[in-house]
Each structure stands twice: as structure tokens, then as C-alpha cells.
């Protein structure tokens, strides 16, 4: 099997595994906050000892060690607010809004990195915003009746955009295993204190909930992000980001089958415009002119 086939297969499998996560959270077997902790802690319990045992724990400098840990804190914040958004709305809507992250990447690149996006980026922004209005309903925007789930889902996309920018920079100098080990450990410690602060229950869950925690930690986090990290290491970031958009579609299909979520024509039209808008930001040739 050639290297390019391995990278593409890793990306495909990683997306499938990540797409299962919103379905598990929407089942509401536990709170979004404690689910985020067990997702990261279970992955860390496997990944950190493996990195130590195999000697794959070294980074090039303190700077990249701290950046790896920072990525963990950002990612933990991302999945926490995303979990709450999923449980407060639908798995489909929360996933679509979170997938606005590539647009935030472009905006942050312009503001903080002084990288001027191509004209296609702004075309994509307009399409995505129109899709957002259709998805949520224009009356929400007219009346400014945004609920907490909407705000948290958008915030999740902002966190993921930050994670994507920092992790891409870090992975240029750090291998996947040490990066994942330190970021996952940092996320686990952060979420541990956050759960203690809000008085979450760590034990007393039923077998179904513990099974869900294991799937989230071993498959949705450990396996999925090792695969995606491998892809990010060997593919252009634009291709990885564009491919990740399919997560929203896979999650929507799974939600219909396992959660009996009702997908309306309005949601389909809005979701398609959002995905089309994000896809337009990665097109090399100008769409107009």
C-alpha cells in the first residue's frame, strides 16, 4: 500500500469515527462535561504510557511542549461546549454550526497572521452565512432570539479553528505520538478540575454509559485523532479541512437512523449552503472573474 493511499485511508476512517461522537452525546447517558472528561482521560490512560514505554515522548523544545499542552486545553474547551450544544439542540444542527470552523480559520489568519484570504474566501463567507440563516430560520435573526445551544455550537467552531491553527504549526516540529500524548494529558487534567468545580458526578453510571465513555475515549478520541493527526502531518491542511466537512453529513445520516432526528428540507438547504460556502474557500481558481 502506497503512502498516499495510507494517508487517505487514515483520513477517511478518522472522519467516520469522529462522526459517531455526536450520536453518543445526544443519547444523554451522562452530562456533556463529564463525557468530555472521560473521552480525554481514557485516551490519555492508553496514549501516555505508550509514549513513555516506546520512548516517543520527546519534543524539540519547551516551546513545543507548551504548545502541545495549549492545544489540549483548546480542544478540551471545544468538545465541552460542543457536547452541551449537542444535548441542548440536535446532533445535526450542532455539528453543522461547529463545521463553520474553516471560515474562522480564514478570519483569524487575516486578523492575527496578516494573511489576506483570496476572493473565494469571501464568496464562501457569504454562502455560509446565507445557509446559516436558512438553517436556523430568519425569524431568529430578525428577533435576535439566539439560544444557548446556537452560541455554544458557534463557539465550538471558533475553538476548533484555534486548535487547527496551533496544532498545524506544532505538528511541523513535533511527531504525532508525543503531540497527542501531551495535549490529551493536558486536556484531561483541565477537564478534571473543571468537573470538580461544577460538582459533576464521576461514578455511579450504568453499563450503557460506561460503554459510551469507552467508545468515545478509545475510538472517537484515541483512534480517530491519531488517524487525523497522521493525515494532517502528511497532507495539505486545506485538504484535511475540506474533507472534515463530510463529518456533518455522516453525523446527520447517523442521527436519522439511531436518534430518529427529523431532517427538514430547510435544514438540508441551509446545511448544503454552509458546506458549499466552506468548500468555496478552498477552491484555488477564482469563482468569479
UniProtKB/TrEMBL annotation:
Reply yes or no: does the keyword Transmembrane helix apply: yes
Entry membrane topology: Multi-pass membrane protein
**UniProt entry tagged with the keyword Ribonucleoprotein:** no
* Compartments, record wording: Membrane
Can you name a GO cellular component term?
Answer: membrane
In this record, what's one Pfam family?
Answer: EamA
Q: Which family does it belong to?
A: Belongs to the EamA transporter family.
Protein's UniProt name: Putative membrane protein
- Organism for this UniProt entry: Balneicella halophila
Amino acid at each position: 500500500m502506497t503512502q498516499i493511499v495510507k494517508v487517505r485511508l487514515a483520513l477517511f476512517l478518522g472522519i467516520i469515527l469522529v462522526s459517531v461522537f455526536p450520536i453518543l452525546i445526544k443519547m444523554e447517558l451522562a452530562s456533556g462535561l463529564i463525557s468530555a472528561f472521560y473521552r480525554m482521560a481514557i485516551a490519555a490512560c492508553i496514549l501516555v504510557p505508550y509514549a513513555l514505554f516506546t520512548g516517543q515522548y520527546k519534543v524539540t523544545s519547551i516551546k513545543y511542549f507548551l504548545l502541545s499542552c495549549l492545544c489540549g486545553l483548546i480542544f478540551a474547551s471545544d468538545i465541552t461546549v460542543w457536547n452541551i450544544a449537542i444535548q441542548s439542540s440536535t446532533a445535526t444542527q450542532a455539528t453543522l454550526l461547529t463545521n463553520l470552523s474553516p471560515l474562522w480559520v480564514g478570519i483569524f489568519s487575516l486578523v492575527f497572521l496578516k494573511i489576506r484570504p483570496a476572493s473565494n474566501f469571501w464568496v464562501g463567507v457569504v454562502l455560509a452565512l446565507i445557509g446559516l440563516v436558512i438553517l436556523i430560520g430568519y425569524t431568529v435573526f430578525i428577533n435576535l432570539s439566539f439560544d444557548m445551544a446556537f452560541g455554544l455550537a458557534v463557539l465550538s467552531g471558533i475553538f476548533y479553528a484555534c486548535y487547527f491553527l496551533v496544532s498545524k504549526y506544532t505538528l511541523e516540529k513535533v511527531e504525532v505520538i508525543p503531540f497527542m500524548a501531551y495535549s490529551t494529558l493536558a486536556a484531561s487534567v483541565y477537564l478534571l478540575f473543571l468537573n470538580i468545580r461544577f460538582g459533576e458526578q464521576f461514578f455511579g453510571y450504568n453499563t450503557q454509559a460506561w460503554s459510551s465513555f469507552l467508545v468515545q475515549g478509545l475510538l472517537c478520541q484515541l483512534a480517530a485523532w491519531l488517524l487525523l493527526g497522521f493525515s494532517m502531518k502528511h497532507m495539505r491542511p486545506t485538504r484535511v479541512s475540506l474533507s472534515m466537512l463530510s463529518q456533518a453529513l455522516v453525523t446527520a445520516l447517523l442521527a436519522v437512523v439511531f436518534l430518529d432526528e427529523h431532517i427538514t428540507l430547510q435544514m438540508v438547504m441551509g446545511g448544503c449552503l454552509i458546506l458549499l460556502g466552506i468548500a468555496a474557500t478552498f477552491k484555488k481558481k477564482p469563482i468569479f472573474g
